Amino acid sequence: MAEVVKERVQSIAHSINAEMKDTIPDEFIMPVEDQPILTTFKGPIPEIPTVDLSEPDQEKRVGSIVQAAKEWGFFQVVNHKIPVELIRKLKNVGEEFFELPQEEKEVYARPLGATSIEGYGSKISKGAKSWVDHLFHRIWPPSTINYQFWPKNPPSYREVNEEYGKYVKEVGDEILKSLSLGLELEESRMKEAVGGEEIEYMMKINYYPPCPRPDLALGVQPHTDLSSLTILVPNDVPGLQVFHHNHWIDVQYIPNALVIHIGDQAQIASNGLYKSVLHRTTVNKSKVRMSWPVFLEPPAEFVVGPIPELLTQDNPPKFKTKLFKDYAYCKLNKIPQ
Ligand SMILES: O=C(O)CCC(=O)C(=O)O
């Protein structure tokens, strides 16, 4: 068995909650300007776009995806063809993993000094700490999978995640197709620009334990995703917020919907037409929140940049063209691109 790492948020939360304390360690208290109690929008919530993927009229279906990607960089998708039963199983096996004894989870810990983010862990941040633990592992393409980071317990974890990988890829293809058509390009062009058949599907499970001070802490801190798209399943505890017109807006939970974030690579490929959405998560006083985002990322050596056909004298490149690994390095180390 691996050594138990004391600073997992789940363990910290467990001790605090067992002692019925009403405080959290200082390192989890966000600076005032980021505290959710002071910064969550309290007015009438604008309607966040929902897209029905079973809409038979292609123009309507594509139009609603394109409009949401331009205006919000964010939407929820219903009737997406991923069986409800499979989503339920995906959630069950993820929940069961996080309920395992701590030392069993540590078997999958991200190795110290590893270059990849794969594995079980907690976010290492320079400022305030995030109230969340996570597990990362690739689920597609098969040649990129490291099964060492896939839990063996529960035993159905592998089968369920492999099955989910196939379905989630279909959804990704469908959305990328629509984003291409929205740019008046061949339907395969956007996908080609963000990795083509080599797009890597990185699964993450976020586990946000109950937090005695949800007014002061955040689960994940404000960020945009490195990916082209992120396709996320949440549990039924709300917490995701998107930044829209200068306000942090609560995202409503829609049972069985998929949550879609437009990420940096779709913004860059479209030369800024599509918006990479800034988002964060709040935590809950008494309930565990969980989410299962899948990030669609180009391979490290893939060249990312605005799609050349889009560029004209009136639409000069707004972003540099570079290797994805260099883009990711700059972003993670907060170095200008
Ligand atoms: O939990 C969520 O709803 C969002 C998670 C997220 O933004 C992330 O893991 O990067």
Automatic annotation (TrEMBL):
<protein>
    <recommendedName>
        <fullName>Fe2OG dioxygenase domain-containing protein</fullName>
    </recommendedName>
</protein>
<dbReference type="InterPro" id="IPR044861">
    <property type="entry name" value="IPNS-like_FE2OG_OXY"/>
</dbReference>
<dbReference type="InterPro" id="IPR050295">
    <property type="entry name" value="Plant_2OG-oxidoreductases"/>
</dbReference>
<keyword id="KW-0560">Oxidoreductase</keyword>
<dbReference type="GO" id="GO:0051213">
    <property type="term" value="F:dioxygenase activity"/>
</dbReference>
<dbReference type="InterPro" id="IPR005123">
    <property type="entry name" value="Oxoglu/Fe-dep_dioxygenase_dom"/>
</dbReference>
<dbReference type="GO" id="GO:0009813">
    <property type="term" value="P:flavonoid biosynthetic process"/>
</dbReference>
<keyword id="KW-0479">Metal-binding</keyword>
<dbReference type="Pfam" id="PF03171">
    <property type="entry name" value="2OG-FeII_Oxy"/>
</dbReference>
<dbReference type="GO" id="GO:0031418">
    <property type="term" value="F:L-ascorbic acid binding"/>
</dbReference>
<dbReference type="InterPro" id="IPR027443">
    <property type="entry name" value="IPNS-like_sf"/>
</dbReference>
<dbReference type="GO" id="GO:0046148">
    <property type="term" value="P:pigment biosynthetic process"/>
</dbReference>
<keyword id="KW-0284">Flavonoid biosynthesis</keyword>
<keyword id="KW-0223">Dioxygenase</keyword>
<comment type="similarity">
    <text>Belongs to the iron/ascorbate-dependent oxidoreductase family.</text>
</comment>
<dbReference type="GO" id="GO:0046872">
    <property type="term" value="F:metal ion binding"/>
</dbReference>
<feature type="domain" description="Fe2OG dioxygenase">
    <location>
        <begin position="198"/>
        <end position="298"/>
    </location>
</feature>
<dbReference type="InterPro" id="IPR026992">
    <property type="entry name" value="DIOX_N"/>
</dbReference>
<dbReference type="Pfam" id="PF14226">
    <property type="entry name" value="DIOX_N"/>
</dbReference>
<keyword id="KW-0408">Iron</keyword>
<keyword id="KW-0847">Vitamin C</keyword>
